[in-house]
Design brief:
The complex is a heterodimer of chains A (about 375) and B (about 90). Chain A is mainly β. Chain A has no helices and 30 strands. In chain A, the strands form eight sheets. Chain A has a four-stranded antiparallel beta sheet with strand order 3-2-1-30, with no helix packed on it. In chain A, strands 4-5-6-7 form a four-stranded antiparallel beta sheet, with no helix packed on it. By secondary structure, chain B is an alpha+beta fold. The mean pLDDT of chain B is about 90. Classes of the chains: A mainly beta (about 375), B alpha+beta (about 90).
């Protein structure tokens, strides 16, 4: 019997939502780690029972939790994140040099093949890896040694490495993204990195098309087409067909192209989903109407999806890691809001309903497809 | 005495007692972290050993947060009559 497990990280704990393949009747477990900020939870593609979770508070710092039974029970594992080299400085909000300081783990990306290997994207931006199931963490220092680090700067949420994409066709290739530095790619397993921001235009920085300094909000890839990347930038929805070497804008026809999430249909590599947000000053949907926009053409042509979503007086946000896609035959799409709703569409976006409505503000949503 | 979040993380529901040769904040926290490894980094920064910003230490109605972590603790704490309190600073949210 197929089913799904939705891992929800919120400002005040984690929740696990499960359903069979129909995705109509849901069981809600939680809160786990009540009172803690749960920036991200993600299961191993190689062993769905293995789940990693990032738990933190301003009082007690970072904890990493691991479950080996699909989220029923959890144990804290290693939480010592030390930069491998002298951290140096990045830019502060006012442009002055600021020392690199570890704050939290924003994103956990388990290996595609080894349940004991997992990557962590952290604030202040760096990439760490554990090869012992989270017991210990080592930085991949080549990213910060690229040389552009002194020009990286924090976005409003901090200088976070929030996106990690592992290329299923090439174990040496990874993509990451940092707010506000931009996207980077390695082709040698993380030893060296190159910025991949050509084509991005950011009016808020002194040099609009600079090599780094772009506030990339999220990047998505379809595993069958690893050379094609889709990006939701601070403003602009972008696409690359050459693994990030060049980007072009595919969001001009949207009512607003500001937003945080972007994701790709499980079976249709040209079908994208985004949730447009009014602006960088007003982090809520345009006109108080919560609409997912879908493109079936890899961008440029977009349709609003509204059935089952509130179309009046809705002023929530959808944060960058709060959308996910399952891989059942009829692809399910999920997203969570800062108002505590988690929505599911079991039919590729045509219709939506809330699985839960009153959770704490949702920080992340990841779905596991269980077969 | 630990704050509620840390009791839950350490899976204890009571005060934690440790034996140390010389009772200081540093030695007590070393012993607590050895007994409950899940607490490493949650009271003191793991790389610098410094008290986390939103943590304070109290004992016998005294704020020891800004004392040296290597100063001897009061006799009443050493004897077990009074606890060393590890407290999360008041902050909203």
């Amino acid at each position: 019997m197929s089913g799904v497990r939705v891992l929800v990280g919120t400002r005040k704990g984690a929740f696990v939502l499960t359903a069979d393949g129909k995705r109509k009747d849901w069981n809600v477990d939680g809160p786990f780690f009540a009172g803690w900020e749960m920036y991200h939870l993600k299961g191993s593609p190689a062993d769905p029972n293995r789940i990693y979770a990032s738990q933190s508070t301003g009082w007690h710092g970072q904890v990493i939790q691991r479950s080996d039974d699909g989220g029923k029970s959890w144990n804290p594992v290693g939480n010592d994140f030390r930069y491998a080299t002298v951290p140096g400085t990045h830019q502060w909000y006012d442009g002055t040099p600021h020392p690199w300081e570890f704050a939290r783990v924003w994103h956990l990306e388990p290996s595609l093949t080894d349940p004991d290997t997992v990557y962590a994207g952290v604030e202040d931006a760096a990439l760490f890896r554990s090869v012992d199931a989270g017991g210990s963490w080592q930085e991949l220092p080549g990213l910060r040694e690229h040389g552009s680090g002194p020009h990286w700067q924090p976005g409003a949420g901090g200088m976070c490495l929030h996106t990690i994409i592992l290329d299923p066709s090439n174990p040496e290739r990874m993509f990451i993204a940092i707010s506000a530095a931009g996207a980077f790619r390695t082709d040698n397993g993380g030893k060296t990195w190159q910025p991949i921001n050509r084509g991005l235009k950011s009016g808020a920085i002194p040099e609009e098309e600079a090599e780094v300094g772009h506030c990339v909000h999220h990047v998505a890839m379809h595993p069958d087409r690893p050379g094609t990347l889709y990006m939701q930038k601070h403003w602009d929805v972008m696409r690359s067909d050459d693994a990030g070497d060049n980007w072009y804008d595919v969001g001009d026809s949207l009512p607003t192209d500001f937003g945080f999430v972007i994701d790709v249909h499980a079976h249709e590599p040209e079908t994208l989903y985004i949730v447009p947000i009014k602006s960088d000053l007003e982090h809520f949907p345009l006109d108080g109407a919560l609409r997912v926009f879908r493109s079936r053409t890899g961008g440029n042509e977009w349709e609003p999806l509204t059935k089952g979503l509130p179309q009046d007086n809705c002023y929530v946000n959808v944060l960058r890691d709060a959308m996910s896609i399952d891989s059942l035959d009829e692809c399910g799409v999920y997203f969570g809001t800062t108002g505590g709703q988690v929505y599911c569409s079991p039919d590729g976006g045509d219709t939506w309903s809330a699985i839960v409505r009153d959770l704490p503000a949702v920080l992340s949503v990841e779905v596991q497809t269980l077969k | 005495m630990l704050p509620g979040h840390l009791k839950r993380l350490a899976q204890v529901d009571h005060e934690v007692a440790v034996d140390v040769a010389t009772a200081t904040i540093a030695s007590v926290l070393d012993a607590v972290e050895a007994a409950y490894p899940a607490l490493r980094g949650t009271i003191r920064d793991q790389s610098t050993g410094k008290r986390r910003n939103f943590i304070r230490y109290f004992a016998c109605n005294e704020d020891l947060s800004h004392s040296s972590a290597d100063d001897p603790l009061p006799d009443a704490v050493v004897s077990g009559a009074e606890p060393l309190l590890v407290v999360g600073a008041m902050a909203g949210g």
